[in-house]
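Postdoc handover notes: sequence design on the structure in folder B. Input tokens:
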């Protein structure tokens, strides 16, 4: 029995060492999140993000202290759309399963197509990607890179959204027909895009939202730095604020790129396997 304990302890230590970052291929972490700052682009009619400086200085107790406050729409900056946003009875922000907010990253790169504000991402765009990289894997985080994020800070509200009024909005997005094809034929964990909405501005009835959110597929919007990701070979993590009853929430989204892999569908990543082995070892003890 003592030998069993010793062996189990060795397994745990090895797993912990491996899971804490000693991985082959020198994995790289990419931040896919725009910084929340006063003056960021906003959806017309919603509460603007506003950060206010609070106290800053020495306290009577003799220590230094900073605190601030902010107000914001649930859909400010880089954020997650909960399925309940446009699908009645579906998951709210605090109900989204964490397993649906992580998965192998799939980046459909449309940058070279010189996407314009009226561009609709089509079924053919996804099929073209699959011809080169293979089938979009089940459980992936499907990211659409239009190149629009370059306008987020550099060019401001009018360049990124087309208008300060909802009637004049103009930006690219997912064709509802392509959303229906994805819903019927693929099994993503989530869909993300570098514009302010998965649906294009001119799309009536928000067909991509209603189709995919109804399947409890959350959206990641205003995603940054998709140009730094490979088409495959990353794992994406999206962590929205856990707002009770929320229709969405600002989120920190990151990608971990394994320098030693390039295939999208490799099953659970090494960290997940290591974590499972660690839990199993603890259970044995």
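Designed sequence:
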């Amino acid at each position: 029995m003592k030998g069993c304990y010793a062996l189990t302890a060795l397994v745990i230590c090895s797993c912990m060492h491996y899971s804490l970052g000693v991985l082959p291929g020198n994995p790289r972490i990419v931040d896919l999140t725009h910084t929340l700052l006063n003056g960021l682009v906003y959806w017309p009619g919603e509460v603007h993000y506003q950060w206010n400086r609070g106290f800053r200085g020495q306290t009577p107790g003799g220590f230094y202290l900073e605190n601030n406050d902010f107000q914001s729409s649930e859909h400010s900056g880089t954020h997650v759309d909960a399925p309940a946003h446009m699908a009645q009875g579906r998951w709210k922000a605090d109900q989204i399963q964490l397993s649906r907010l992580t998965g192998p990253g799939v980046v459909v790169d449309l940058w070279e197509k010189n996407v314009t504000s009226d561009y609709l991402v089509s079924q053919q765009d996804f099929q073209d990607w699959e011809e080169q990289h293979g089938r979009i894997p089940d459980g992936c985080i499907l990211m659409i890179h239009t190149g629009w994020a370059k306008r987020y800070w550099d060019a401001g509200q009018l360049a990124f959204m087309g208008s300060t009024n909802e009637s004049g909005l103009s930006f690219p997005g997912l064709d509802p027909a392509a959303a229906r094809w994805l819903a019927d034929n693929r099994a993503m964990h989530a869909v993300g895009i570098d514009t302010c909405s998965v649906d294009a501005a001119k799309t009536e009835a928000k067909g991509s939202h209603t189709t995919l959110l109804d399947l409890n597929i959350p959206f990641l919007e205003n995603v940054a730095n998709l140009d730094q990701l490979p088409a495959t070979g990353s794992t994406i993590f999206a962590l929205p604020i856990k707002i009770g009853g929320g229709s969405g929430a600002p989120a920190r989204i990151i990608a971990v790129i394994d320098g030693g892999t390039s295939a999208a569908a490799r099953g659970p990543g090494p960290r997940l396997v290591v974590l499972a082995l660690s839990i199993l070892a603890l259970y044995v003890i």
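Context for whoever picks this up: The first helix runs from residue 2 to 19. Don't rerun without checking with the PI first.
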